[in-house]
Specification:
The chain has 5 helices and 6 strands, in the order H-H-E-E-H-E-E-H-H-E-E. It is α+β, with helices and mostly antiparallel strands. The chain has one domain: Spore Coat Polysaccharide Biosynthesis Protein SpsA, Chain A. The strands form 2 sheets. It has a 4-stranded mixed β-sheet. Bound molecules: 2-acetamido-2-deoxy-beta-D-glucopyranose (NAG) (3 copies). One 2-acetamido-2-deoxy-beta-D-glucopyranose (NAG) binds next to loops.
Length: about 190
């Protein structure tokens, strides 16, 4: 994703050209556009790759690709998958900086959702997200990770049963041996 600062983009482009392992998608890194970011990642995975799964992570997340692939190998390829550090029955904060109004979220609790720093969805879920977005039929919400949880819940209830796979190994705080993800810059969220 593009950075609002031009010089950051220039350096990143150079790095991508050198190593050939970064794809820069044409979007600006603005909070309001974070919803488009998830959708753009899904589009790239569905339209430009032949991937069976998409792992979304933040730019301060370090991923142990070998460990993640090993875990994925154990999953039936026929199943729709949503894997991450799952939160069950989390309730919105109604006060303070991260407050969520009743207008934004009338329900008591969120659907099960995986923490944002790193989660995996199967490609059929990504496809569903794109087509619902194309029809303007996606429910939107300001928190990226909860929003994906909502979309997966919709998919699960209207399309096909999803295997929800919870693992603590999607680490939120620092580094742990054999974990799937590490946060290089923990924000204490
Ligand atoms: C993805 O594929 C589309 C259509 O083939 C192409 O126009 C686009 O440039 C590709 N995107 C990337 C980032 O390679
Ligand atoms: C996946 O589904 C196909 C057809 O429904 C079936 O033949 C195959 O055995 C399944 N594979 C696994 C690993 O469950
Ligand atoms: C997914 O769907 C199944 C039945 O289709 C339902 O029993 C289950 O509770 C759903 N899971 C979630 C997390 O919504």
């Amino acid at each position: 994703m593009k950075n609002p600062r031009k010089e950051v983009n220039a350096v990143l482009k150079k790095e991508a050209a050198y190593f050939g392992d970064i794809v820069i998608l044409p979007l600006t890194e603005l909070y309001e556009l974070v919803v488009l970011k998830t959708i753009t990642i899904c589009e790239f995975g569905v339209q430009n790759l032949t991937a069976a799964y998409i792992m979304k992570c933040d730019d301060d997340t370090f991923i142990r690709v070998d460990t993640v692939l090993k875990e994925i190998e154990g999953i039936s390829p026929n199943k729709s998958l949503y894997m991450g550090n799952l939160n069950l029955l989390h309730r919105p904060l109604r006060n303070g900086k991260w407050a969520v109004t009743y207008e934004e979220w009338p329900e008591e609790a969120y659907p099960p959702y995986a923490n944002g720093p790193g989660y995996i969805i199967s490609i059929d879920i990504a496809n569903y997200v794109i087509s619902r977005h194309g029809n303007r039929r996606l429910r939107l919400f300001k928190m990226e990770d909860v929003r994906m949880g909502m979309w997966v819940e919709q998919f699960n209830s209207s399309m096909r049963a999803v295997q929800y796979s919870h693992s603590w190994k999607f680490c939120q705080y620092g580094c742990m041996e054999n974990y799937f993800t590490h946060i290089t810059n923990p924000r204490g969220k």
